[in-house]
Amino acid sequence: MNQFLNQWGEAAYTTLGFFWMAVWAFILGYAISSMIQVFITEKRMQKVMGNKSGKSVLLGTFFGFISSSCSFSALATSKSLFQKGASFVSSIAFLLASTNLVIELGIIISIFLGWQFVVGEYLGGILLILLSWFLIRIIKPKKLIKNARHNLNSSHEQEQLDQKTFTEKIKSEENWAKVGKQFAMEWKMVWKDVTVGFTIAGIVAAFVPDSFFQTLFINTGDGQESFGFLTLLEHVFVGPVAAFLTFIGSMGNIPLAALLFGKGVSFAGVMAFIFSDLVVFPVLRINAKYYGWRMSFFILFLLFTSLVVTSLLLHYGFNWLDLIPESNSTNITEKEHFKIDYTFYLNLVFLALSGVLIYFGFYKGKDVMHHKEMAPKSPMLEKVLKWFAIVSYVWLTIGITLRYLI
After folding, report:
1. Distance CA 295, CA 291 (A)
2. Nearest-5° angle of CA 146, CA 97, CA 346?
3. Residue 154: which pLDDT band, with cuts at 50, 70 and 90?
4. 150, 179, 224, 402: which could form a disulfide with 9 (CB 3.0–4.6 Å)?
């Protein structure tokens, strides 16, 4: 019994330590994302994404890069862009870029996994887009695209573009109030995922033995340096399954990805795990609601195929360049998290920044209206996640108490 209580305490401490490592990065990422979403409007994006040319794909990628990392926000925005005239391929490019190339995700990955995985994430995001574009050009799903537009019942209203200059927008107190509200909205979109994800990471670190991962991901283990093709193929197929079972998005999954790599899972398997936030059932259901089930399954095939190929290409490419880090170097569970170092001071600075943004959004600009469309989430899933989050807080409170009492 004492061993279990000790492990409970260690799990809670590890969870809080993981989150403390990432607080400043979350705030920085969401602050940048919020400013970009307020100052660069969706209407401007739609105007330049209407054809299937390389320029439109490049612009879709760029607008995704400067967008929000939340999968549900990305789904809604890509649907809106497609509905109002953007080409299907540029909408897919936007969707993939906004969930794989965004700034905040790169920062979190650098903290938990290192620069090699950041490079892999960004190169992989570009490869996902190129492979998806290639598959669309080969398959030519014209009928599916036509039916998807019909399902959306596009209204084609002509909306006026905001004619204000960027300088005028920056000086506007109303826009800064919108930034504050968007910042709060970003947290509202992910707090359950982040809470559950970090809690699961702590529990896995404290309770789950290495033998479990060696069974789930074949031929893994400490000291494993090379993997055969069939082993890598199994890893990149199991990675999305593991991501699906966690119920959470990529931001909450990064600590788990670090643990997987520390347990000996291949670089390809970990990258597949990180890339998998768009090939899980909630996303499949949302796409079906937007475009119909046939198009939803086509998007699933498109993204899963691109994910598998991309993860394998990254692994072999990084291995050839001798850039794959040793798994021991990612053992973040043994770090002393709460100490006076650069993380401590960065957290203080960015917590203060959060206070400033909340002040502008909800006190100084309390009468300013700001709303961003979100994909229709499953009420049942959201309720389940909310209860998981509440249980997580209870678990953490008891665990920290146990750690300092036993």
Report:
1. 6
2. 150
3. very low
4. 402
